[in-house]
Amino acid sequence: MIEMYVKNVAFFEEGGGFAVLLCDKNNKMVLPIFIGPLEAQSIALALEKQKFPRPLTHDLMVEIMQKFSISIQKAVITDIRDGTYYAEIYLKDYNNVISVIDSRPSDAIALALRVNCPIYMTPKLIEFTYKYEELIPQ
């Protein structure tokens, strides 16, 4: 697996939507994943570490997991099929049992950012990456 981090959330007029840009630790490749505006907002807020008086959906999920002694170990972008990316969230419970949950990449990323756990992609997704300069003109 290849460790990634969220470079930023960008709006692409050409595609008419938002994308979260995952970058490898060496800044050599970027995996753009198109997401909806609400998911983009949630990820952007997590990147900025903004807190609200009332919990948003991903904040609520984290709080529930913490109350039940469940921790997020990692988020993995696993596959792309028919233009749709897939992800998994690895959870560890109070008995140290690991469970793997199917997830949308945007939810996996939003949760990972909130608990500061690693984000990975599988090597088979390398062919879908770009150089940052190819996506965002300087």
Automatic annotation (TrEMBL):
<protein>
    <recommendedName>
        <fullName>BFN domain-containing protein</fullName>
    </recommendedName>
</protein>
<feature type="domain" description="BFN">
    <location>
        <begin position="1"/>
        <end position="133"/>
    </location>
</feature>
<dbReference type="Pfam" id="PF02577">
    <property type="entry name" value="BFN_dom"/>
</dbReference>
<dbReference type="InterPro" id="IPR003729">
    <property type="entry name" value="Bi_nuclease_dom"/>
</dbReference>
<dbReference type="GO" id="GO:0004518">
    <property type="term" value="F:nuclease activity"/>
</dbReference>
<dbReference type="InterPro" id="IPR036104">
    <property type="entry name" value="BFN_sf"/>
</dbReference>
